[in-house]
Amino acid sequence: MKNQMKAMLIHKYGQKNVEIENVPMPEVSSNDVLAEIHAASINPVDFKIRDGKLRPLINYKMPLILGNDFSGTVIKTGKNVTKFKAGDSVYGRPRKSRIGTFAEYIAIHEDDIALKPENLTFEEAAAVPLVGLTTYQAFHDILNLQPKDKILIQAGSGGIGTFAIQLAKQMEAYVATTASNAGKDLVERLGADKVINYREEKFEEKLADYDYVYDTLGGDSLINSFKILKPGGKIVSISDVPNARFGKENNYPFWKTLAFKLISRKLTKLEKQYQVQYNFLFMKPSGEQLNKIKELIEAEKIKPLIDQIFPFEDTQKAMEYSETGRAKGKIIVKIK
């Protein structure tokens, strides 16, 4: 076994360009598998981590390998591992304290991975874990989405939106989404019932009496989302600020929960004004839920959409392309 690998690193928060370097191979503990990474995907959380925007939630030691999900092959297993063996094709999202999928190898807890869907390539499988788990937890764990519920999914043609529309339709919900003219055909093909062209229309003037909003944008889009909900409705945001509810439910210290309460004051006021609930979601890794997503994919009820695949050495270009916001579906980095 070699003792070094190539990885994409930052050395400080705010560093705009990731740099390819040789680093030591990861250490494998008793509950870990060592996986050779075939592909990883680009996610908005990669920029938030790079720019230091997630420091209130988690503060990383530098230098840091970026990357939050992957697909690959198990090379070896720790002594307590029971679910996987060398040679298994897997996909996963490492826990937040152990990210680093823009690399040739990763050591990852066996609970954070699942066998790769058999009908997907490694590149397609790498597109799924973070967006899949985030959306699964939003729809199942927070919203308890039911048939005929009306949900607005923001930015339907993006990496999260394309997965979310498919999952919501599989759960028999009525789906509205926002998209440009360029993305309209795509989101309709995925099953969206109503499409709002955000360049020409204001969704808050076209939609009313909705049960739920899945907010992937934050800012004004989130503020305006309160207006379309019926009393008792819920918003799940993955892009705005945590609130006190999030702090308490995730056992953050009192001072941090208080800080969340202060930064979310405007949202709390809107909750009361519209009699709805705002939820911030910082998803958790789960091999168990990835297995459920695997079943949906193998039953051909959900298919990941890929916009573009970049070679490993062009990870910086892949991140720059993602930041333009023009991608339809996921952006993948091919490592092997």
Automatic annotation (TrEMBL):
CDD domains: MDR_like_2. GO terms for molecular function: oxidoreductase activity. Residues 14-333 form the Enoyl reductase (ER) domain. Coiled coil: none annotated. InterPro entries: ADH-like_N (IPR013154), ER (IPR020843), GroES-like_sf (IPR011032), NAD(P)-bd_dom_sf (IPR036291), YIM1/Zinc_Alcohol_DH_Fams (IPR050700). Gene3D superfamilies: Medium-chain alcohol dehydrogenases, catalytic domain (3.90.180.10), NAD(P)-binding Rossmann-like Domain (3.40.50.720). This is NADPH:quinone reductase. The lineage of its organism: Bacteria, Bacillati, Bacillota, Bacilli, Bacillales.
